[in-house]
Write the structure tokens for this entry.
Amino acid sequence: QVIATATGFGGDVQLAPKQSYVSLRRAKQFATVGPASGGRLEVGLNLKDVATSGRLEAGSGMCTHRVRLSDPAEFDDEVIGWLHEAYDRA
């Protein structure tokens, strides 16, 4: 669902599978999608200079922020908005 949404932002989205996650790229990486602890899905986002709040946590490694989803219903308009913002910035 996350990947389908991101690829719908534009024809320039590239998927780069890695060992433990999938990198979403445009001119540069804007997000990652992969497994997290406890059976959750982690969406990493590159949102430089955006404050963390609520579900939008500080990231580590390749992404500045992350959102952990434990249910498909948690992939809502708020998360899609952050994903789209990361896409726009790439």
Notes: The chain has a mean pLDDT of 96. Helices lie at 2-7, 77-89. The radius of gyration is 12 Å. The first strand starts at residue 14 and ends at 17.
